[in-house]
Amino acid sequence: xxxxxxGYARAAGVNNFLIRPIFTFxxxxxxxxxxxxxxxxxPLLEDTSKFxxxxxxxxxxxxxxxxxxxxxxxxxxxxxxxxLEHRDGSCPGTMVQIKGEKxxxxxxxxQKDLVSDPPMNDxxxxxxxxxxxxxxIMQAIRVLQDINSGKGSEIFTSSSRREGKTLDAxxxxxxxxxxxxNGHSYGAxxxxxxxxxxxxxxxxxxxxxxxxxxxxSSGQLNTEIPVPLxxxxxxxxxKTHSIFFGRPHFDTVADLVRGxxxxxxxxxxxxxxxxxxxxxxxxxxxxxxxxxxATGATADVRKALxxxxxxxxxxxxxxxxxxxxxxxxxxxxxxxxxxxxxxxREKSFPKEYAKYWEVHVSPLNQK
Length: 367
What we know:
- The chain is about 40% helix and about 15% strand.
- The protein contains 13 helices and eleven strands.
- The chain has helices at about 1-10, 20-30, 70-75, 120-150, 150-160, 185-195, 235-240, 250-265, 285, 290-295, 300-320, 345-350, 350-355; strands at about 50-55, 80-85, 95, 105, 175-185, 210, 230-235, 245, 245-250, 265-270, 355-360.
- Strand 5 (about 175-185), helix 6 (about 185-195) and strand 6 form a beta-alpha-beta unit.
């Protein structure tokens, strides 16, 4: 907990011996008693069925454990989720453990922390971090492929964390015909970057991608995506007007998704009504009143997270069956945020969807 607290102090620009204990105490006060309902190295049920796989990339100043409810809901429905903890300097604090070596913490990095010639700037830093994130995603896929090919014991033996004693049981149980890459915020930008080679090589067999609130300050968004794509904005992400490389961020994302739709035939861009940027994380569940006050979110926390899970499952189902379900089977309702395309569409859009969603790009509207 102290590792993460120091990372938050660095992010706030107040990292010193007086402030760090205060951050650690505050973090303990908010989440110290929280336990995740999961166990490590539980035996796999004897079966022959295969499980679809998702690699998930966290946002900036976040970690792999900040999305346990969202990812746990997906896992409980039969999906293997590999939630990464990036060592690119965007995580508050993470510990690198190598056998035979002293544990090494990696904290949140800023430009001033790096020696560079020419001097480091934000553009270079983001480019380098995204390159690291992309390689980490690819490496995660390689390790999962090794587990699936029967190398679970070797991976367990080489693990510095002494976890994975049941990995042998996962031989031939991972369905790489249904691999997707998902990410939130900076992680969404990284996921889009990793999708550039999706389904084109054996090292990246991804057949779809999900981007939740793709970054507004995390570098250019990759537009070359050869597989179906779902982009979901929180309400605050769509509502807040942000200039992104010379044009509105919302318009950039909409054009990106239209380009994928026109090339691949399947891409969606939605806004989750009443939500804020942290709504897909665990934070609103832990401190709903505080987060709603701070972010302006109005949606019920659990229902909003439930909708994120539902639309994700609908997309994952589409990648398997090509059948559109739920809000993914709806035509465009709002080409612009907050503005209905017509009174007729407002009347025809099912109320159970209108309460939670705006549809900006859909394969049901080829325009």
